[in-house]
Amino acid sequence: MNSNVIGNSTLRKESLDKVTGKVIYGNDHNSPGLLHGALKTSPHAYAKIKEIHKEDAEKMPGVKAVLIGTDLKENIGLYLCDKPPIARDTVRHFGEVVAVVIADSVEKARAAVDVIQVVYEKMDPILSPKEALEADASIIHQEMATYSHIKPIHPEPGSNVASRSKIRKGDVQKAFTEASCVVETNMVIPPGDHVAMEPRVSIAEIKSTGELHITSSTQAPFVVKNLMCHFFGLEPGKVVVTAPMVGGGFGGKAGIQLEGLAYLMSLKVGGRAVKLVNTREQDMLASPGHIGLESNVKIAADKNGKLLGMDLTYCFNSGAYADYAVNISRAAAISCTGPYNVPNVKCDSMCVYTNMPFATAYRGFGHIEMAFGIEKALDELADKLQMDPVELRILNSIKEGDQTPVQSVLNSSTGDLKTCFKRVEDMLGGSVGEVQEIGKEWVRAKGVAGFWKAPAMPTNTDAGAILTFNGDGSCNLNTGVVEIGQGSKTGIAQIVADTLGIPIEKVHVVMDVNTRTSPSDWATAASRGLFMGALAAHEACLDAIEQIKEVASAVLRAPKSALVVKDERVFVVDEPTLGLQLSEVALGYVYPNGNAYYGQIIGKGRYITKHLTDIDKETGKGHPDLEWTLGAEGVEVDVNVRTGQYKIVKAVCCIDVGKVINPDLARGQIVGGMAMGMGYTTMEGFKFNSRGQVTNGTLRDYKIMRLGDQPEYKVEFLETPQLDGPHGARGLGEQSVIGMPGAIVNALSRAIGKGLYEIPITSERLYKKLLEVSS
Amino acid sequence: MISIDFDYYKPENINEAYDLMRRFKTEKTNAVYYAGGTEVVSFIRKGTLKAKAVIDLKGIPEMSKMYAEGEWVFVGANVSLSKVADFKPLEPMKAIFNKIADRTIRNSLTIGGNICGKLAYREAVLPLLASEAHVLIAGAEGLSEKKLSECFDKMLKLSEGEFVYGFKIPRRDKMSIYSRRIESDIPIDYPVIHLVGIWEENRLFVGLSGFAGFPLYKWIDKEQFAQWEQPKENLVKEFASLAKKDDRSGKEYRLHLLDYLIEDMLGGLEHDQL
After folding, report:
1. Centroid of chain to Cα B225
2. Which DSSP symbol is given to A94?
3. For residue B39, is it within any domain?
4. What is the CATH number of the domain that holds B142?
5. Which residues contact A672 (CB under 8 A, 6 or more apart)?
6. Considering chain B, what percentage of its residues have pLDDT values greater than 90?
7. Terminus of chain A with fewer CB atoms < 10 Å: N or C?
8. How far apart are CA B273 and CA B270, in angstroms?
9. How many structural domains comprise chain B?
10. How far is CA A323 from the centre of its chain?
11. Which value does ipTM take for this structure?
């Protein structure tokens, strides 16, 4: 074992190439004869397509073909097959793709897009889940009954509900009648975008052998491969998907999107290689963004603040199509209470169609939205009971032995949430419930929130790892985890270096993922990449060590049980000088007389989730959750009570991760999540006019956090071991985004003395609330 | 990236530029002048500006010059806002220029572009109006010089084909300037409101950008000001009816901020008599 590697802030394997611009991203791939695509999108939120005139576009110089919706018969979809790759006879959201041009160059393709004429018949768009659920609302998906779907999804044809997940635990009615104190909040979050640095790109080519080759900026090459086979009737062995280095995903690239279109484009031009890359505006609107939510949270507690029950209604705003959203609403149901012990729970979590840009996975996967309402309600409960907000949360923190909303019992690998809250309180300087005046116009206040998340993934989620070796005893590590900027591949390499007992510099990581040569991997999402990839890699190392010992046992004439692999050697435990260099064994051993023995070492490892089940349709009972990572965070804000302007001065987080494999990378993830959560809460989100058109669909108008907007960050880690994790580690990629809206809204509400219930919290919104306070 | 075809011209002197534009106007070709390109590139790419020809003014060397001469500072229209803000003789006005966009954009955004472009904020015009700057306009008869305040009403009034050659700004070592800008979310954005107050010898200049659909300004005589019992309310009344509503703010919030900023300005303004 090389104990210097775990817990070490090793530089990322790909960093130098990244910062010097040498990395090849999807759009850097070019080949002779490559054709290019351009998209025409809808200016209307809801309309029938009456006519499309593409003849002029087809005649433009360099144009090879123009695809429209009626050219394609099938729908695609992740869990619910509801989306035509190109709008067929109806556009259901602003920015939906209505035609695709294939041409010699991007400029020629885009010029041809401009001359395509579309005649629309506008309809009244539905612009909120509330509206969509009204009895007389128009039905956005009339054919819902015909859509195929996976079993855990429950669509309701004849309505705008794409899926409903129910939790029924205990007796909520009784809890509310017995309660001393009840609070109720209604919160609204609009849909928005991930704004990853790299816009999406897909390249597709159908070879003469019939093989389909796709290169795509995807977090999930194997998902793409499987779905392409499923939708287009292709053989899995003949579909090869490559994921190069990806410039940020945040969940937005975890499904299938441009790949299907790129394939159809290639098919249209006889299999020639075609590249489709989004403009920034298309990346925001034509490709999916993040989900919205209207939530109603009711909490019942006894006079000491012990939570008795929660009655929750979550209406997720999926937009025009369901994509990942049906699973997001399900995941939010599974975690619906936040990280608190609630004996009685009723939750109806719905994925609702509207005529807004549609949603896919986003960091936090339903938890950031869910937590907003829960954390605000908890603060209101604390106010009503005149309790300190941290004290209330510590009193109810979930712990080992407690049941989750789906009645799954938490085991000893459960983090220490109480200490997380205490640390957050400490880092904020205590007195979380107080407001300080810090000048004539400014007040300072604090807010906290708890968070938890388990990956929401199939019960057979898996990973794999292959190790091959080089003549110097160094190894090559091949996993299916995609490098999207999170550094998992480096973390996994650290595990390998540690297990094999070789320096980290001698672990060479295969950066690109290729579905033909890399072992299968569900998807780089849900904060499980390091967790599962490392477990598989660890097994591959043990497999390789077995083989190394096999060779050494013969050569050194010692039993395998007496051999140790360490410091790039294999040697006899009680006679360390008697041994072999790994370089002598790695590619087959050669005796002094020339005889060769055993052959090259090839390590293989695999991982698949154990004991997971789906949840019951009526009660939600089940065990879908692999491991929970939880923690607490808080902010300190300064508010100008005259103008409503505010500044987040401090953001702190304490999270129980089991084991910190790479401190700098781990801290980077936590801080990055906090920053993302701050932008989400204070300035992001799509804005719509009354016709359902997005008015801030460019980066000049859609604001995200910049370097200069950062507060002071403080991050602490707790290490309650995850018994089945690599070195006791748990996933941590998403969690820190989850509590930010709650912490921020609690701090601001406290500062102005009035509740805020809508995101984003702009200074104008704050000012309007201040007016209410003074009147 | 701009994917439409257009013609690019780079004239070397004023007459060439003006004649080109006159020709395009006669032919009814949609042509625009540009220098920094921060607007033109964005709008052509977006499709809101359908220019068939662009005339790059950066080929005219004098328009990139900036120097102090006697009582004046000459600033060519093509000089970037970063350079203008860093120029010592214009230091008193720096606080206003440096609030526009961010440094990277100001490295390209020219003073001419900020004042004559499509975007209606034109923040750089406010201190120029206040100091009674002159504008040099290139037109049919070559260069003509006018008082900026006499040809600026919501925007610079130019005849067809004319363009701004540069500005002559009266040199000031010291100016009493109040400049406070409020944005809706983060500082690097258009202003919801930018209030500029400049106390001159006998009068107060009050200018607003972002508040209405165009820059607003007014001079108020010191004598008149001294007679006001409610100076804040009177000042607010001058501008209130023009408050606009847009994506970044409603009317009510703008009015509130106007009231607040004027109160701040009157309370904290550097001056020795009021």
Report:
1. 26
2. T
3. yes
4. 3.30.465.10
5. A736
6. 88
7. C
8. 9
9. 3
10. 13
11. 0.92
Q: Would you say residue B160 lies in a domain?
A: yes
Residues of B in contact with A764 (CB under 8 A): 184, 249-250, 253
DSSP at A601: -
Last residue of a domain, one of B106, B141, B170: B170
A to B CB pairs, distance under 8 Å: 52
- The distance between the two most distant Cα atoms of chain A, rounded to a whole number of Å, is 97
A303: number of Cβ within 10 Å: 9
Q: How remote is the C-alpha of B59 from its chain's centroid?
A: 22
Specify whether B70 is located in the same domain as B129: yes
Average pLDDT over all residues of chain A: 95
Q: Taking CB atoms and an 8 Å cutoff, what residues of chain B touch A709?
A: 186
Which chain B residues are closer than 8 Å to A643 by Cβ? 182, 256-257, 260
Distance CA B27, CA A635 (A): 61
Tell whether B21 is covered by a domain. Answer: yes
Q: Residue B179: CB partners within 8 Å, gap ≥ 6?
A: B95, B96, B99, B194, B195, B196, B197
Helix (H) or strand (E) holding A102: strand A97-103
| Whether B66 and B161 share a structural domain | yes
How close, in Å, is residue A62 to chain B by CA atoms? 13
List chain A residues with CB under 8 Å of B189.
703
Query: Quick one: which of B39, B182, B215, B181 has its CA closest to B97?
Result: B181
DSSP element (H, E) containing A298:
strand A292-301
Co-location of B102 and B17 in the same domain? no
- Cα–Cα nearest to A253, from A288, A228, A218: A218
Length of chain A: 775
Q: Tell me, yes or no, whether B21 and B33 share the same domain.
A: yes
| Residue B167 parent element (H or E) | strand B163-170
Round to whole Å and give the CA distance between B93 and A91.
Answer: 51
Q: Which residues pair with A165 in a beta bridge?
A: A349
Tell if the CB–CB gap between B253 and A767 is shorter than 8 Å.
yes
pLDDT tens digits for A160-206? 999 999 999 999 999 999 999 999 999 999 999 999 999 999 999 99
Query: Pick from B170, B204, B223: which residue ends a domain?
Result: B170
Q: In terms of domains, do B181 and B194 share one?
A: yes
State yes or no: pLDDT of B136 exceeds 60.
yes
CA B79 to chain centroid, in Å, comes to: 13
Give the CATH number, domain containing residue B210. Answer: 3.30.390.50
Domain that holds residue B121: 61-170
Q: Are A169 and A344 in contact (CB under 8 A)?
A: yes
Q: What is the CATH number of the domain that holds B18?
A: 3.30.43
Distances, alpha carbon A45 to alpha carbons A41, A95, A188, A759, in Å: 11, 8, 20, 22
Do B166 and B65 fall within a single domain? yes
- The predicted model scores a pTM of 0.95
Report yes or no on B2 lying in a domain: no
pLDDT value of residue A3: 60
Is residue B270's pLDDT more than 50? no
In B, minimum Cα distance to A698 occurs at B46
> Are residues B38 and B15 located together in one domain of the fold?
yes
Q: Report CA-CA distances (Å) from B33 to A331, A345, A732, B79, B162.
A: 55, 66, 53, 15, 10
Which of B1, B3, B258 to mutate to test binding with chain A, by most A CBs within 10 Å of its CB? Answer: B3
Q: How many Cα atoms sit within 13 Å of A128 on the Cβ side? A: 13
Look at A301-310, A354-363, A607-616 and tell me which has the smallest mean pLDDT: A607-616
